[in-house]
Amino acid sequence: MARRTGSSGERTAREIRAAAQRLFAEHGYAAVSMRQIAQEVGVQAGALYLYTSDKQSLLADLLIEHMEELLAAWDAARRDEADPATRLETFVRFHIRHHLRRVDKVFISYMELRNLSDENFLRVERLRRLYEQVVEDILHDGVAAGVFRVADPRVASLALIAMLTGITTWYRAGGRLPPERIERIYCDLAFGAVGGAAPAAAGRAAPA
């Protein structure tokens, strides 16, 4: 079924996605009904189907939107640096800043992959692979340049992303350490994991 268009329809569609995101993050995909989403938005349950075909489509849209937003943000943030060490630091800082601003999206994107249909899983997985390739390419270039020591760049790239994303499970604003210090610690951890040394100019900004 085609979605409604126009400013009012687009606003309602955004509200439905936002409500689904909140409820999925709080209760889990399986425990949330379309009726609950409708109540959260303030519309009749049947009205949801003017904007989405079913709950599975809502979940897929959220996960795909998250990955497309992430890839676009990285394209805007990355620099044309030849030095693999500088590129890795830029990536680490970008990943942390981007994900800490989208904790619910990140949680759903990892915890609810299992609830995607096979077709939707493949759609999300293709986007995830593009992002993983960013780190893998940096590590390959670092190994070739002799600045990283990594036995398997593919495995190392997945491990790094998992480590960096894990910050969303424990970080709280106003905690013991300022964000800049946490970024520095994670940069050091990342470089230690790949057997390299961080660039001398620490603390560079990385837009997200």
Q: What is the CATH C-level name of the largest domain?
A: Mainly Alpha
Tell me the span between the first and last alpha carbons: 35 Å
What is the name of the CATH architecture of the largest domain? Answer: Orthogonal Bundle
> Helices and strands: which structural class?
mainly alpha
Radius of gyration: 19 Å
Q: Name the CATH superfamily classification of the largest domain.
A: Tetracycline Repressor, domain 2
Order of helices and strands: HHHHHHHH
| Proportion in β-strands | under 5%
Task: State the assembly state of the protein chains.
Answer: single chain
The biggest beta sheet is recorded as: none
Which properties best describe this structure?
208 residues; mainly alpha; Arc Repressor Mutant, subunit A; Tetracycline Repressor, domain 2; 2 domains; elongated; disordered C terminus; DNA-binding; TetR family transcriptional regulator; transcription regulation; Homeodomain-like_sf
